[in-house]
Amino acid sequence: MIVPVILSGGEGKRLWPLSSPARPKQFLALTGEETLLQQTVRRLSDPALFAPPIIVGGASQRFLIAEQLREAGLAAGRIVLEPKGRNTAPALAAGAVLAHAADPDALIFSAHADHAIPDPDAFLATIARGVAAASAGHVVLFGLQPSFAATQYGYIEPGEPLADGVAKVARFIEKPLKADAERLCAAGCLWNSGLFLMRADRLIAELEAHEPQVLAAVRQAIERADADADFLRLDPEAFAASPSISIDHAVMERTQRAAVVAADFVWSDIGSWSAVWEVQARDAHGNATRGASVLEDVTECLVFTEGPQIAACGVSGLVIVATAERVLIVPRERDQMVRRLAERSDETN
């Protein structure tokens, strides 16, 4: 069985003002009727393939996680609460240690709670292609065929074949400049989706070799955790002793066992408002709307409102988002400024 380890601790500031530390983007319904968290858990709920998931999130999010699972009729094997965010390596280490304790032969699948994957059948078929390599001890990553020369994603260069549809990783490339991204796409490199599959004991061994402080802190945080029927609360003092480091830097870029499967599904990390616009159904004028709006001579816009009606005329290519407290208006091509606007808004309040 594969144990999904779902990371649900992000703050989602790039989707301000709808997303906030109190309600990050994984708890929002941005691509359908269900929230991104609910969609993620549902994708990973086939009992023929997956064990109940381990969901790792912030302590302040515990009731949001539990309530959204209850509303959707979904269940978690464990909800693990981080007293403080320490990046993805400690969070995944906790999932691996817990999965291994329950089953020494467990595979773990790392998933982010805030990604959008609209075709679950293609997703599951792709994951299945990596099971044999992961069972044999490889760290299997899932790379996406680039649809454009993205500079906001890391890339994976496939190397020599290991099996049908599985290749060794020749190298990882951090977020490149535009010209470099174009060359990488032309050379057959893949977007790094941040999704991977491996044995739990393999991740533990890799952490022991490369980041033993992370593993030691997480083990102690679990040993001293406060557990009840709903949550496993990691010990704050022990968990805080872990270095704050991503799983990419801790393991993926160091392991000698990295392999990659080219994914056959559509994927988005919903990392910007333009990404939200791209995954929406749009009208004949290219507009994606949610909530009450009146549009006249408007094209290629994203219009989201949680309350006040939005009326717009004679504009194109804008993101317009309204909550009860704030309104955001920004050109889609400049939506990378949203995080800065969110920080400036916080400074003035």
Spans of at least 5 consecutive residues whose pLDDT stays below 50 are: none
Strand order of the largest sheet: 5-8-6-7-11
State the helical fraction: 25-40%
Give the beta-strand count.
Answer: 17
Structural class: alpha/beta
Question: What are the key terms here?
Answer:
single chain, Spore Coat Polysaccharide Biosynthesis Protein SpsA, Chain A, 26% strand, alpha/beta, 2 domains, five-stranded mixed β-barrel, 349 residues, 31% helix, four-stranded mixed sheet, 12 helices
Layout of secondary structure:
Layout: E1 2-8, H1 36-43, E2 54-58, H2 62-72, E3 78-82, H3 88-102, E4 107-112, H4 120-129, H5 131-135, E5 139-144, E6 155-163, E7 166-173, H6 178-186, E8 190-199, H7 200-210, H8 212-223, E9 226-227, E10 232-233, H9 236-240, H10 247-252, E11 258-263, H11 273-279, E12 288-290, E13 293-296, E14 302-305, E15 310-313, E16 318-322, E17 327-331, H12 338-347
Helix pairs in contact: 3-7, 3-8, 7-8
